[in-house]
Give the backbone structure.
Amino acid sequence: MTDILDIRGISKSFGALKASDDISLTLKSGEIHALIGPNGAGKSTLINQIAGGLKPDSGSVHFSGQDITSLAAPARARLGLGRTFQISQLAPEMTVLQNAVFGALGADGRVSRFWRPVMKDRSLLEVARSALERVGLNHRAGERVSEISHGERRQLEVAVALTQKPKAFLMDEPMAGLGHGGSERLTGFLRELKQEAPILLVEHDMDAVFALADRVSVLVYGRIIATGTADEIRTNPLVREAYLGDEEEHA
Amino acid sequence: MIRETHLNALIWLLLLIIPLAAWQMGEIYTITLATKICVLALAGVGLNIALGLGGMISLGHAAFFGIGGYAMGILANHAQSYIPIMEHPFLIEGTKYMPVIWLLAIVMSGLAALAIGALSLRTNGAYFIMITLAFGQMLYFFAISWPAYGGEDGLAIYVRNEFPGLNTLVPIQFFALCFLILTAVIFLSSRLENSRFGLALQATRQNETRTRTVGLTPYKIRLIAFVISGMICGLAGALSADLNRFVSPVMLSWHTSGEIMIFVILGGTGRLFAPLVGAAIYIMLEHFLGGVSDYWQIFLGLLLLMVVLFAPGGVIGLLTKREAAHD
Ligand SMILES: Nc1ncnc2c1ncn2[C@@H]1O[C@H](COP(=O)(O)OP(=O)(O)OP(=O)(O)O)[C@@H](O)[C@H]1O
Ligand SMILES: [Mg+2]
């Protein structure tokens, strides 16, 4: 298994707050690497630095053997980094299908076409429809995004990422708000998807994490305090103290 | 409540039929008003691409309108005085030939939009509005202090420019020309709206993070739209100058930017026929109320206020039912 993603010593501070503190981790082909940690631990901040939305203060990001630290987000996406957001980032006035077609258009890259109707472009439509099909959203294709449910938007985010045919996925809490049934279906889907491209998965849903993850890293106050298999993490005393124990108290 | 496409067709037909009827009845002034609507609507169609589709609140579009006007004014001025624009290193003469004038207007306003857009699109929000405003005002003051072409007084062109096969001095013929250009540009802009580029532009307006995430650069998309938008305003400026046979710095002032924006907002920002509806309302208010009171713009202000507060879809949005989302 080769490292698709290799994050080396990333640090990021917001004023006095160390949101990322010398973080190193890898994502190997064929795996789901889960990133867990309490609220405010810095998970989204890390994902954002890998995707190129935020510049780290120090450290580097390597993707398929290439140093991409200085590339902007669009360039990273074009190289094959697919991403879904904790808070959906979609075009709200466009339909479900248009959002998916936009994903396919981004992957195609030929945007300076001013004449032919994009929604009659067979090649883009095919990519978009098959992505919607895979997440089970095809029946909602004609609906405006502002009118679909929260859970459906999460599914659409995954579908748009699929249209990009990425070499690796960064997913920030894709299960949030999906409900039990939706969560279970997505779990099944991600297990299938990791064969195509590995997934760095931020997730709060512990059932999903322990069911899916080949490896788990635990982030607390911007630091990775442990990395290991699901079983190793479950029994790691440091983790129990810092994170899992905390969860149980809440429950 | 009717469908937007039907309303558009109706508006288009009215704009064609009323001047034709006026022509039959010898009402020349009505034809001139209709021509004015076409020309101003054309500027609005240009702005609507940046503002409506792209969400770029530009208060500097008068710059492109004015550059188009001065392109016409300068070329025609040299033609009527028989003084070449330059003799060295090669000879460039003025012209009274509309297609050449339009080409120059489009190219010059496009270049200006490229330069202004390249700088101002690095900012956003209120800064973008202010920077476009500042660029527009720079050109305005430049025109005022440029004595070679009339300075503050502007330039008068004695005879309307020529178009092959037409007598542009006949009002109905010049109207027909402006009407056809407006129709063609509206058609082009509807193609653009539904094209690949149109999808990218509208998605970028709605959520630029989404654009970056699919691998596209919002800045480039906006800049292309800004240039197209500016070129259309430049063409409108050249026609407007020909309609009035007069060019002055007022074309470049921020009042003009504001007026063009009012057309778009009155009609319904982002809607294909919004600029036409807005320009028609504006011209009719000016015509009917302007005679009654010098303060007719108060009524315009009230109307604008009501639209912004109670009808965010503009007059078109008010009259049409929202078409169900469909691909
Ligand atoms: N742009 C920013 N400026 C200042 N502080 C920020 C910024 N972004 C995030 N933070 C802070 O950095 C810390 C980490 O935030 P982050 O969103 O990465 O946490 P998270 O692990 O994703 O949390 P959650 O589980 O709630 O999503 C938080 O304390 C947050 O308030
Ligand atoms: Mg988060």
Notes: Residues A 43-44, 86, 172 surround magnesium ion (ligand 2) (CB under 6 Å). The two ends of chain A are 38 Å apart (CA to CA). Chain A has a mean pLDDT of 92.
